[in-house]
Amino acid sequence: MKKRTFVRTLVGAAVLVAFSGAAYSQQTVKIGLLSNLEGPFAAGGADGMRGAELAVKQRNGMAGGRKIEIIKASSDAKPDVAVNATRKLVEQDKVDIMVGPLSGGEGIAVKEYSKTQPNITFINGSSGAQATTLVNPSPNFFRFNTEGAQWMVGLGKAALDKGYKRMMVIAEDYAFPYSQVQGFMSEYCRLGGKVPVKAWVPLGGKDYSSVIARIPKDVDALLVVLGGADAVNFLNQYEASGGDKPMVGGSITVSQDVLNYKGKRRDSLVGTISAGPNADAYDHPDWKAFVAAYQKNYPVSSGAYPSPSLFALVYYINMKAALDGLDAVKGDLSGGQAKYRAALQKMVLKTPVGDVKLDANRQAIGTAFITEVVKDAKGNLFNKVLRKVDGIDQMLGIPKEQFKVGSRDEPSCP
After folding, report:
1. What is the pTM of this model?
2. N or C: which end of the chain has fewer CB within 10 A?
3. Which 8-state DSSP code applies to residue 161?
């Protein structure tokens, strides 16, 4: 009797497991997608959404044998707004995975919020502040894109090669530009460059007259780390003032959302060197396939760009990581998503710009491109590749005991 009971129990359990597995495979995975659809980065944020959606479209809306449902939310580059939007997605909409946000200060704030939701996995959108993963990292926050300082590796030397020995910095006053300036100046200062003036401007500012008036006559060029509408406003006002200093661009300053604005100063961007995680004219089959898929799904007539912006690429990379992770665990998000996170941590992610792996802080180690803005036969501006730098980690080649996170005052070489 005991043996028959034991066998019946085993059979019943097997049936229950099989039934549960079948039911489980039919469940939908809800992914929250947060980007900026308002504020100075609204145009770039919309392209970020396109990139994330493209990663899902390429799999016909499935990953790990489960249907993917995207629930979107909007922010405006303000950390408190980003956290409130994330909280709604997590606590009210009950998403299983979060992808986002876009901007640096937002990323730090959402990282901190993620610590209060240990059963949800958070994957970055395009936020690029160093501190998100380098200072008090969260065990359930992953970033498969390299960050703002990593993007600038190699640009300091390129600026000196152009003869720019003294430069003024003009950048927005928040975490991501601090990282970009740190990535640039760490190399530029070490090689002998000087930065006598830094002008930190408010995010979303519209009047740059006082900043333009402060530009010293004896600087050779400007390092401009402004994005979206901020970059457009500065460029227009600088041209109107008769400014003629050459510029070195931050990654977001020469992204497609800025290169495609309409204005006279736009053409004077031709020749601007910059650096970032992508280059419009990168001659590699994986990049070309990504561009072709973007153009097919989002033609220019729909409001998209001739080439995917930085935001489209980085959101695509992070959403692809989320989906590849689901494939790796066959959609299993049980046990507080422990198996899923383990798969993400050890993943070598194939991206349009090369392989990405994570460090111990769940931060990407990857590639940066040194670029130059050029014009094609149709009058479109794009970034051609000057040089590619692989395997960049967050220490930027600086000994750990000497490394300091970028801030308003760090680095300094007046």
Report:
1. 0.92
2. N
3. H
